[in-house]
Amino acid sequence: MFTGQLQAIVLVATLIAGLLILAWISLLGHVAAHLAAAWATGMWVSDVHIGDGKRSLSFTIRETRCSCRFIPTKSLIFAYPRTVRGYSWRQALFFFAGPCVSLAILIALFGYTYWGWGVPSNFSHRNLASQNVEPALHLAILGAGLSLILWMAFEFALLCASVVPHGKAVGSRRLAASGSRLWRLMWGKVSVPHEPQILLDTGRATRALQAGQNNEAVAHLREAIRLAGLPHGVQLQNLLANTFASMGKFAEAEVLYREVTNVIPPDDPERVHAIDAFASYALFQNQRHLFVECEAMVRKTLEHWSDQLTLKGTLGSLLVEMGKFEEGQALLEELQLKPTSEEDAAISAAYLSILAKLNGDADCAVRLAKEARERLPSHPLILRLLGA
Q1: Same domain, yes or no, for 26 and 171?
Q2: Which pLDDT score, from 0 to 100, does residue 293 have?
Q3: Residue 117 binned pLDDT confidence (cut-offs 50, 70, 90)
Q4: In terms of C-beta distances under 8 Å and separation of at least 24 residues, what long-range contacts does 293-296 make, across chains too?
Q5: Does any domain span residue 240?
Q6: Which of 178, 209, 229 is the last residue of a domain?
Q7: Total domains present in the chain
Q8: Which structural domain, as residue segments, surrounds residue 29?
Q9: Is the predicted pLDDT of residue 276 greater than 70, yes or no?
Q10: 291 and 156, same structural domain?
Q11: 96-110, 319-333, 356-370: which range is least confident on average?
């Protein structure tokens, strides 16, 4: 009896480890191919984020800042051209390098398992504890490998649909929102005029911001926004507004935020990001005269996008700031249970710490404050709420 239970435990542990290793091999090959293509064609890669999870391993390769988390579910790469010459073929090579390598790796692993081990015929699913681990492992790897190949083929088809010539794009931003997570770039691959020059200016602005050259960054962002227009330039306009806020030019920042929120219709997914950016600006910079306005905007947006936990957390933060503790606490606790990012987890913990202190629960307040500081020790809102 003990031997059977031990076999079942070994089987489950082996399957989990095998699937993680398989996913990591595919994902790392995918990212490495994108990076190699970007560097080979002279593109500048500012950031690479791999995986999901609370803790990350951060390091720098060349000019690229990299962060890795434990769960191999996604990768995010920010790449910009250094020149507009030959942009089309560079873009195509960069986009297709990752999925091509992922497909090749998965097919090779599947083929090795299928032709090297074969499909076991002596395995029954009815009593796992009494079965040999090896046949089950073979079947699991075959099934997982085939599933990943089919999923990667779907992603590959989605990518092909999203990089067709200008004028024939199929709205890939909405398709990406519904399924694709492996290669979301800043533009969501929506075909827009002047895209090479827009990305070039965006890359220059990003480098200027990293170097603390805010005025130069503003100039490049303005040019990129002029070429892109709205709604394509929403994220750039939010970045410009954030830059103005960091420079203390709050009036200019508010004008840009309001312009974005007035342009985007309520059923557009970009409105979620625009409203959250405006409300976050009000919270981070403690612009209390905007709290009522932002609360109304967030509530209106949640009528169309009720599943957006980050936006619910933003509303909860605004409500706590305005003294509506009970409703705000319920929203923040919902976000705390299923945080969508490190920032969400830290900010919700900070506000819940304040509420716990007000309710006389000192131990809970200390624990949540410690969690918030450990996650984001230098975040401006964490510092404003909890102190250094």
Answers
A1: yes
A2: 93
A3: low
A4: 294/318, 295/319, 295/322
A5: no
A6: 178
A7: 2
A8: 2-178
A9: yes
A10: no
A11: 96-110
Residue 77: its pLDDT value, please? 83
Q: Domain check: are 13 and 95 in the same one?
A: yes
pTM: 0.63
Length of the chain: 388
Q: How far apart are CA 342 and CA 349, in angstroms?
A: 11
Name the residue among 23, 70, 75 with its Cα closest to residue 48. Answer: 75
Whether 33 and 98 have beta carbons less than 8 Å apart is answered as: yes
Q: Could you give the CA distance from residue 300 to residue 60 in angstroms, rounded to a whole number?
A: 41
DSSP 338: S
CB 354 within 8 A of CB 332: no
372/369 Cα distance (integer angstroms): 5
Distance CA(72)–CA(102), nearest Å, equals 13
Q: Which residue has the tokens 């081990």?
A: 117
237 within a domain of the structure (yes/no): no
CB 162 within 8 A of CB 172: yes
CA distance 309 to 290: 21
Q: Give the CATH number for residue 373.
A: 1.25.40.10
* Residue 75 resides in a domain: yes
Residue 93 lies in a domain: yes
Chosen domain end from 124, 150, 178: 178
pLDDT at position 172, please?
A: 30
CB 335, CB 310: distance < 8 Å:
yes
CA nearest to 107, candidates 26, 190, 8: 26
Lowest mean pLDDT among 117-121, 250-254, 264-268, 313-317: 117-121
Same domain, 258 and 155: no
Report residue 264: phi and psi, to 5°: -85, 130
The sign of the CA dihedral 233, 234, 237, 238 is negative
DSSP run (H or E) holding 337: helix 325-337
